[in-house]
Amino acid sequence: MKFISWNVNGLRACVGKEFEKSFQELDADFFCLQETKMQAGQLDLSFDGYESYWNYAEKKGYSGTAIYTRHTPSAVYYGLGTVTEDGIVYDDDSVHNHEGRMITIEYERFYLVNVYVPNAQDELKRLDYRMEWEDAFREYITALDKKKAVIICGDMNVAHQEIDLKNPKTNRRNPGFTDEERGKFTELLGSGFIDTFRTLHPEDVVYSWWSYRFKAREKNTGWRIDYFVCSERLKEEIKGASIHTQVFGSDHCPVELEIF
Questions:
Q1: DSSP assignment, residue 117?
Q2: Where would you tag: which of 92, 121, 245, 253 has the fewest CB atoms within 10 A of its CB?
Q3: Count of CB atoms situated within 10 Å of the CB of 189
Q4: How far apart are CA 135 and CA 185, in angstroms?
Q5: What residues are annotated to the active site?
């Protein structure tokens, strides 16, 4: 099966930049979107053979996630919750569930988690919250993993290693490349998960995000911050992992996982 993840940085804007053509050409079983920046009813976008699930932020024009899938899930969950024997339970007052950052869909063999991880923001003013999110997210994912395998995809807003961004030395302490954020990603992987692209391509320098400033994409001054991370026990079932740098329409490009 083929999985695609793409931070579209505003789906309505991306639709005006040949999103539908890219969607058809990528031809995935699962197509996960982050930063849709939409509210319900603002866009009617359907594709033959797919059903879709949406998680909207309370704040208009902000964040948001969506999944298009050819395979009907047995359950759909929105946000971060507590994993129980009967499913996932949510606290409506949770600080983590107001920004539409996550959708989990469940199948017989695995969970698919589509996530848009909070940005630490300029001057790292949201770094403390980011650390809270990371701990809650890791707890949630590891609890799911005890029940069945997990595939995580999305904009995780961190370049894990120096190979994952063009200028590591000058970006130390910048959002997405702090020791704290990188450390939390290391903790996640250490909890029984693998970075699928880096596992298959340990030395490849490929980016998934470029600033709109300074002709960064033209110069390929980028960062790899979009990932497919999966349960370590799925390693032998991975058939491919790639980054579609040829696809435009956003400041991010789609990333792909082929598995099973």
A1: P
A2: 92
A3: 15
A4: 10
A5: 116, 155
